[in-house]
């Protein structure tokens, strides 16, 4: 018997098992990206790109590169040993198989002119605020649609939320108001410090204390300009505008048009993605964007 034949055969290392991401993990990454934009680590364009990427992820190792270069933000993503890790603290996250550096992705996928970029930023803010927290079924790569409209997507719930907002914020200039079925978020200019934006969340029937602030300039509208009936009509008609009658609505976001009037973007679940319909303040359709 030759010496070589006496050597034990070298065992081959089994491939690493890929873990599917949960909704809670995606949500923690979205929050980390929001915090990174707030403290200046990401500009709004980078924030938009990364938050859209979160929505497309299936596995945990696809989420890690999106936060690997950020400082001081915490996610619920486990590190390679299975322990919870802080974004930016675990070295080598971008070396996972199949991971593409975020910067390279941006250069390939976003060759847009300034005007289109600005429009996407507006849509991106809506998408960031829109991503729901419902738990998906086993194996689904993205978040699941709600079984039925939440309380804020009813006439009574919407009216109650708007009344509470008007009482809380008065005629403050509003940057964006996003309404999910069971919660709403609002960003407005701090009246005591022009240029400073504060973000509040409506949950449990009342507006909570500001969760973060940022310094960003955008067109604003007044809450008195929002007609609840127009918003409800938009919520009800958007699925048909997308050719998806009966599909559940994810959220509606309110932005200002160039004249300072509120306009409404309704996001509708289309399988694993979202389609959007944009309406003017009178409820006329301005644009329909099928899921991409």
Characterise the protein shown here.
- By secondary structure, the protein is of the alpha+beta class.
- The protein folds into two domains: about 25-130, no CATH class; about 150-290, no CATH class.
- Helices cover about 35% and strands about 25% of the residues.
- It is built from eight helices and eleven strands.
- The chain has helices at about 5, 25-40, 45-55, 60-65, 100-110, 115-130, 155-170, 230-240; strands spanning about 75-80, 85, 175-180, 185-190, 195-205, 205, 210-215, 250-255, 260-270, 275-280, 285-290.
- Strands 3, 4, 5, 6, 7, 8, 9, 10 and 11 form a nine-stranded antiparallel β-sheet that branches. A two-stranded antiparallel sheet has the order 1-2.
- Strand 9 (about 260-270) and strand 10 (about 275-280) form a beta hairpin.
- Helix 2 (about 25-40) runs antiparallel to helix 3, helix 2 (about 25-40) packs parallel to helix 4 (about 60-65) and helix 3 (about 45-55) crosses helix 6 (about 115-130).
- The longest helix is centred in the middle third of the chain and has 17 residues, at about 115-130.
- The model is unreliable at about 10-15 and about 85-145 (pLDDT under 50).
């Amino acid at each position: 018997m030759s010496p070589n034949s006496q050597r034990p055969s070298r065992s081959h290392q089994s491939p690493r098992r890929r873990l599917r991401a949960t909704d809670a993990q995606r949500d923690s990454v979205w929050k980390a990206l929001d915090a990174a934009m707030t403290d200046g680590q990401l500009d709004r364009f980078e924030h938009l790109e990364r938050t859209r990427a979160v929505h497309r992820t299936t596995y945990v190792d696809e989420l890690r590169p999106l936060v690997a270069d950020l400082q001081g933000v915490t996610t619920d993503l486990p590190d390679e040993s299975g322990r919870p890790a802080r974004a930016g603290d675990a070295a080598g996250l971008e070396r996972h198989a199949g991971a593409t550096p975020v910067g390279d992705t941006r250069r390939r996928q976003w060759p847009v002119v300034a005007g289109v970029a600005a429009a996407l930023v507006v849509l991106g803010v809506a998408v960031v605020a829109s991503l729901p927290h419902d738990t998906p079924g086993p194996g689904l790569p993205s978040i699941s649609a709600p079984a039925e409209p939440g309380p804020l997507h009813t006439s009574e719930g919407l009216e109650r939320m708007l009344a509470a907002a008007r009482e809380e914020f008065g005629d403050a200039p509003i940057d964006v108001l996003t309404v999910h079925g069971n919660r709403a978020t609002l960003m407005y200019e701090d009246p005591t410090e022009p240029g400073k934006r504060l973000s509040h969340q409506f949950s449990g029937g009342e507006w909570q204390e500001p969760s973060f602030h940022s310094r960003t300039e955008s067109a604003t509208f007044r809450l008195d300009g929002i007609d609840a009936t127009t918003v409800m009509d938009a919520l009800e008609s958007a699925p048909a505008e997308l050719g998806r009658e009966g599909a559940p609505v994810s959220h509606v976001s309110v932005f200002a048009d160039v004249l300072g009037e509120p306009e409404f973007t309704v996001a509708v679940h289309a399988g694993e993605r979202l389609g959007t319909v944009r309406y003017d303040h009178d409820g006329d359709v301005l644009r329909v964007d099928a899921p991409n």
